[in-house]
Amino acid sequence: MTNATQSLRPQLDRARRAWRASPLPRFFAWWFAELGALLPASWGRLFGGGAQWYLLQRTDGRWELRRTGESEVRAQWPRGTEAAIEQAALSAAVRETDREDLRLALLLPASAVLRRRLLLPRAAADNLQQVGAFEMDRQTPFRVEQVHYAVLELDTPAPAGRFFAELVAVPRDTLDPLLTELEGAGIRVDAVDVAEGTGRLGVNLLPPARVPYRTNPRQRLNLALAAAAVLLLVLALAQWLNNREQALAAMQVQVQDMQAEAQQVAALRQELQDNAGAASFLVRRKQNRVTMLDLLLDLTRRMPQSAWLERLSVDPSGQVGFQGQAPQAAALIDALKDSKIVRDPNFQGSIQPDPASGKERFYMVAQLRQAGSAAPATPASAASEAQP
Q1: Residue 51 pLDDT more than 50?
Q2: Rounded CA gap, 386 and 49, in Å?
Q3: In this protein, which residues make up the domain named GspL cytoplasmic actin-ATPase-like (predicted)?
Q4: Could you give the count of Cα atoms lying within 13 Å of 59 in the half-sphere of its Cβ?
Q5: Taking each helix axis from N to C terminus, what angle separates 3-21 and 24-38, rounded to the nearest 10 degrees?
Q6: Rounded Cα gap, residues 203 and 167, in angstroms
Q7: Whether the Cβ atoms of residue 360 and residue 332 lie closer than 8 Å to each other
Q8: pTM above 0.85, yes or no
């Protein structure tokens, strides 16, 4: 373990304690257990990973290897056996475990270590190693230089603002020869712990300088897969966003087309309304104007049979001008004043006698009435009134 790692150890210990105190470990343990129960057993063995701890313990002049939580001895060999034989026995015992998951812990008997229970203030939880070094002289007959030690935080209920911890120490004279013997046989352990039943106490008395450095290819692979998953997620989100943008653009084009069609429909509707208004205007204009037939019928009915017209004209303003001859032209004013077709009859110019016919030549003007106020005469009534 490097000096940088040692300097970061308090922060790492603080993070581990915060993690263990949170409900997340229990939740993830339950979740992964439920997921694992859904997989077939073969898949569980294939995808199952994590550290697999094996416990190496010296008993009566021989080494015994067990798997944590099991009482069955998987391999054993006498002390002082050749290194090749020891490594072969160890390899045969752990052949079912992936080398990346294999972890080896040296177990010390409880009689070989010294354990002291400590009641510490909560502020000391971030510096347990320093607290252990300070308490070593007070709690044990050893100095810090004479032992390898570790401090384990306990879950035992404690007074407010305090917590219980356990100081575990082993003399260097006891541990160092065992580590040297194992290293001479080519066996490096990942931890040194204290035997407790079929398992271990949960401390690590291995000196930092002897902790083996391990590379974790799976971690690199997992990081690469995680990065690929994040990249694929980003690409999927980008594709989804692009699809949404394309759909929005297509909808905008459709809206623009519909707006153009709506404008065309509005223009056609306006044109239709204009045409309908013009047609209505023409109809009303036609209805409000007196027809030439009604004018001729009315003049024929009211003028005497001895009079005739030589010329008849109607200008756009509705003024009627007619020229003709009659025996008594002055009587025509009285004949036309009750007309429902024309009004305000007057002579234009003077009345002059015609030597050839012996009648009076006249030129009269009048104004057409509106069609609603006129009562056009039927041909039958006009003919009956024209009879003497």
Answers
A1: yes
A2: 127
A3: 103-192
A4: 13
A5: 80
A6: 10
A7: no
A8: no
Tokens of 94: 């752990």
Q: What share of the chain is helix, strand, coil (3-state, %, to 5)?
A: 50, 25, 25
Q: Is 197 left (phi over 0), alpha (psi -120 to 50) or beta?
A: left
Residues in the chain: 388
Is-contact 69 199, C-beta < 8 A? yes
Give the pair of three-digit tokens for residue 68.
């944590």
- How many whole angstroms separate alpha carbon 176 and alpha carbon 194? 15
Q: What is the pLDDT of residues 150-194, one digit of tens each?
A: 998 888 888 888 889 999 999 999 888 888 888 888 888 889 999
Cα-Cα-Cα-Cα torsion 250, 252, 258, 261, nearest 10 degrees, comes to: -100
In the beta sheet, which residues pair with residue 107? 57, 193
Contact at 8 Å (CB) between 351 and 329?
Answer: yes
Place of tokens 């041909």: 379
- Could you tell me the pLDDT band of residue 199, with boundaries at 50, 70 and 90? confident
Paired strand residues for 342? 368
Two tokens at 269? 């509707």
Most distant CA pair in the chain: distance in Å?
Answer: 176
Give the HSE-up count for residue 370: Cα atoms under 13 Å, Cβ half-sphere: 5
Whole-number Cα distances in Å, 83 to 86, 103, 182, 260: 5, 19, 9, 91
CA atoms within 13 A on the CB side of 292: 7
The CB density around residue 51, as the number of other CB atoms within 10 Å, is 11
